[in-house]
Amino acid sequence: MVGCALPDDAGVFRIGEELALVQTVDFFTPVVDDPYQFGQVAAANALSDVYAMGGKPLTALNIVAFPTCTLGIEVLREIVRGGCDKVAEAGAVVLGGHSIEDSEPKYGLAVTGIVHPDKVVTNSGAQPGDYLILTKPLGTGVLATALKAGMLEPEDEKVFVEVMATLNAAAAKAMTHIGVSACTDITGFGLLGHLREMACNSKVDAEVWVSQVPFLPRVLEFASMGILPGGAYANKEHVTPFVEFAEEIPEAEKDLLYDPQTSGGLLIAVPEDRKEALEGELRNQGVASYRVIGRVVGEGKGKIVVRRESK
Ligand code: CO
Ligand code: CO
Ligand code: CO
Q1: How many Cα atoms are found within 13 Å in the side-chain-facing hemisphere of 67?
Q2: Ligand 2 being an ion, which residues bring their Cβ within 5 A of it?
Q3: Which of 98, 203, 253, 291 is the most exposed place for a label (fewest CB within 10 A)?
């Protein structure tokens, strides 16, 4: 049902009238020092692509690359324990996995979920007039860079890890309960990169209201100092041709719209007549960090206009 022809968060394969498989894989190098926390973040990130499709995770397989000789097996055990605990929190099970020796540690999971074939949420269904809702604040790429530079206070690091380790399960539950037009999760391409993909696949144009976009604590300060990951520049270069800044917007805020996220929130396109219901359901599910950040303005080729406020 969803495959290589139109890039989406996960593949979807119908196996019956009432059932389709959702399959995805994701792994990366450590973003935090604590191995248990790294495992949790990597698992939340891998599970997220199932949630973004409206699916429910069922099983997962560990993918491990690890320098056993230099780091020791205890560190690896902690990473995998973090991952398995997060998968259990999602109501799924880890069935096994595969590991290789590698000089740089890498961890992630291949996740299989299920979804009703009629309830698949793709990134290509956004409609003119839809509101755009983002469920987590932006800035994890900037904070990862600040952490590496030794500039994060322990309390900033705590928020940083917490937001990345938070499952998109509750947001997805609200979304599938209400029924929405489209969804994707914000990861490596940043808010504008993933919105661009959604808008392009949906054949619509969109606008973003930067005053409504939620940012993590201190990320504006760090971005103003030029503490940005390399990925932000790469995203900027790829997406800039499709983005227009309608007004004077501080450079740091622009940069954050391109900041690559690890285990970012869901970006949901919801019809106007379901917006209130979705907001109510997100609050019911405890997703207090969501914001209405923009709107689909009409049919088009995936152009994005960034304004300070909604008109
Ligand atoms: Co994704
Ligand atoms: Co992915
Ligand atoms: Co094997």
Answers
A1: 6
A2: 26, 49
A3: 98
- Please give the distance, rounded to the nearest whole angstrom, from the Cα atom of residue 8 to the centre of ligand 1: 7
Question: Per-residue confidence at 24, pLDDT binned at 50, 70, 90?
Answer: very high
Distance (Å) from CA 198 to ligand 2 centroid: 14
Determine contact, residues 104/29, Cβ cutoff 8 Å. Answer: yes
Residue 227 has what pLDDT? 97
DSSP state of 227: -
Nearest ligand to the C-alpha atom of residue 49: 1
Q: Which residues surround ligand 1, an ion (CB under 5 A)?
A: 9, 49, 185
Q: In the chain, which ranges are E strands?
A: 11-14, 20-28, 56-66, 93-101, 106-115, 131-134, 182-185, 204-209, 243-245, 266-270, 291-299, 304-307
Select 131-307's CATH number: 3.10.50.40, 3.90.650.10, 3.30.300.30, 3.50.50.60: 3.90.650.10
Centroid of ligand 2 to alpha carbon of 281 (angstroms): 25
Q: In the chain, where are the structural domains located? A: 11-119, 131-307
Judge whether residue 297 has pLDDT over 90: yes
